[in-house]
Amino acid sequence: MKVTVVGAGGNVGSTVSMAVAQRDFAKEVVMVDIVQEKDGDKIYPSKGRALDQWESSPIHQFDTKLTGTVDYEDTAGSDVCVIT
To answer: What is the pLDDT of residues 16-67, one digit of tens each?
Structure first.
């Protein structure tokens, strides 16, 4: 199963993503959020959160694929979409 979480760069969205991953509810979680800018630099919060959660997978014992993106094309084929 593939789950998309829109707004995953924020606290609620990233918590939903982590809960789905930890419970092995899906084989893949796509974390989508907008690009933010700070002092002229682009920041991709969903990519950072996905990497943080993926790096914790050995400790939390899950093997769900976590992908952070700003491209809605990556959500194609999702079985469930959660909007936060």
So the answer is: 999 999 999 999 999 999 988 878 888 899 999 999 999 999 999 999 999 9
Which amino acid would we find at residue 81?
A: C
User: Hey, what domains does the chain have and what are their CATH numbers?
Assistant: 2-83 (3.40.50.720)
* pTM reported for the whole predicted model: 0.90
Calpha distance 40→32 (Å, rounded): 21
CB 30 within 8 A of CB 50: no
Q: Identify the bridge partners of residue 28 per DSSP, sorted by sequence position.
A: 2, 65
Which two structure tokens, joined as six digits, stand for 23? 């419970």
